[in-house]
Structure formats: structure tokens, C-alpha cells
Amino acid sequence: MTALSRFPRFFVTSPSPCPYLPGRQERKIFTELSGLHAGELNDALGRIGFRRSQSVAYRPSCAGCTACVSVRVVADEFQPNATQRKLLRRHSDLEITACKPWATEEQFALLHRYLSARHPGGGMATMDENDYADMVEQSPVSSYVIEYREPSVNGERGRLVGACITDQQADGLSMIYSFFLADDESRPGLGNFIIMEHILRSQAAGLPYVYLGYWVKGSERMAYKTRYRPMEALGPNGWTLLEDEDMAIAMPVPANAAAFA
């Protein structure tokens, strides 16, 4: 392993408005993933709470705020509840393929429709096809685009209803970004189904975890991540099981909260 891989250089972004908690600002620490050992570095950083975006690994480093918590599902111990089992049956007809990380027009059209339905004013809403291609293809690690399609008819591939950019790490699958039909009543709950399919995929591959990124205590947008139990959260003492009382405790106000007003 090169010296750069063993001792990567880290940088910090300038503060910017937090997309999850009003009145707060976010800041990230990041490093480049490159070279022959990018996968090993990504694995190591993933275990301490970093996430990948293209060829960069990052994690929050916000002054006075620790609301963003890295979470991962313990795949082998996951048992779907009645609602989740119903959802698995409902979408059991989907044809699922792990594709090479190559962007397609069909994927981009689905992404655009998803963003219009779920995040019309978000930072990704202005993405064009080149931006999407960079998002998918600029990966220095083992990555896939997992596609979810309706059944084929007369040899023709079925409609693409969901997709997820997924990294395979040494100890699990990391869901980088998923998108799906969010405005079609005939296919409800696709986002939840994609997460559960990743858990089942990890079980089949003998991988212990599914990394879901950051759970943000106090953000309704992130509350869905805690439905998949048992779940571990990364804290000062390492990865520990996330308990109900952890979610019930009110989020602490930063000591310098006035600075975020």
C-alpha cells in the first residue's frame, strides 16, 4: 500500500446551510479515493463513518453538532415484520440485476422523475445526464447499479422502477444512492423494498452489514432508516446497537446554537 493510501490527506469544506436541520450549518471532512488501494481505504474509512461520493470519501464534521449518526443494519439478525413481509411479497415479481456502474438514459429518466416527486427543490434537481454519469461511473471501488424491473414481456425488458448505486465493501454493502418510482400508486414502498432486498442480498453473500449512511436525529426525512432492526450506530465507543430510547431522547442543542441562528 502506498504512503498516500496509508496516510491520506484530509480536507475540510467551508460551512454551508444544513439540508436536514433548519438554522444549522454543515461542514464535511473529506479525502480522495484513488490508486490501487482505493478499495481498502474506502473499507477502512467506511468502518469509521465515512461515505463515498464518486472518488471522494467524506463524513460530517460540524461545529457543535453531532446529529448525523452513521448507521448499519445487522443483516444476519434482521427479521422483517408483518408490514415488511407484505411489501416483500408485493414486489416479489420484480426482476433484479446487479449491473456494472454504467449510466443509462433510462436510469437518468427515472432519477429525474424521482427527484421531481421527492426532492423538487433539492441540490440534485439540476443534475444533467453528464452529472449523473459522473455520479455512477466515477467510482474507484467495487460498485454496481442494482436495477429493479417489472417482469419481461415477449422478450422485452420490463419497466425500470428502481435502482441503487451500491458499493461492495469487505464487511457489507453500502447503499450510496437509491431512486425509484415515488409517484406510482401501483408500486408503493419501493424505497423500503430496495433496502430490504439489500439486506437479503447481504445475507446470501455472507456479508454482515448493510450501511445506510447517516441517520439524523430530529429529521423526519431520515426517520425511515430506523425501521430496519437490529441496527448499529457509530458513537464515541464504536458501533453499538441503536435502542428505542436512543431515538426518543431529544436532540441536544449545540453549545454555540446562537451561531447557527
UniProtKB/TrEMBL annotation:
GO terms for cellular component: cytoplasm. It catalyses: N-terminal L-aspartyl-[protein] + L-leucyl-tRNA(Leu) = N-terminal L-leucyl-L-aspartyl-[protein] + tRNA(Leu) + H(+); N-terminal L-glutamyl-[protein] + L-leucyl-tRNA(Leu) = N-terminal L-leucyl-L-glutamyl-[protein] + tRNA(Leu) + H(+). Pfam families: ATE_C, ATE_N. Residues 106-234 form the N-end rule aminoacyl transferase C-terminal domain. Signal peptide: none annotated. It is found in: Cytoplasm. InterPro entries: Acyl_CoA_acyltransferase (IPR016181), Asp_Glu_LeuTrfase (IPR017138), N-end_Aminoacyl_Trfase (IPR030700), N-end_Aminoacyl_Trfase_C (IPR007472), N-end_Aminoacyl_Trfase_N (IPR007471). Its EC number is 2.3.2.29. It comes from the Bacteria. Residues 16-86 form the N-end aminoacyl transferase N-terminal domain. One of its GO terms (molecular function) is leucyl-tRNA--protein transferase activity. GO terms for biological process: ubiquitin-dependent protein catabolic process via the N-end rule pathway. Keywords: Acyltransferase, Cytoplasm, Transferase. Belongs to the R-transferase family. Bpt subfamily. Functions in the N-end rule pathway of protein degradation where it conjugates Leu from its aminoacyl-tRNA to the N-termini of proteins containing an N-terminal aspartate or glutamate. HAMAP family: Bpt (MF_00689). NCBIfam families: PRK01305.1-4. This is Aspartate/glutamate leucyltransferase. It comes from Sphingomonas kyeonggiensis.
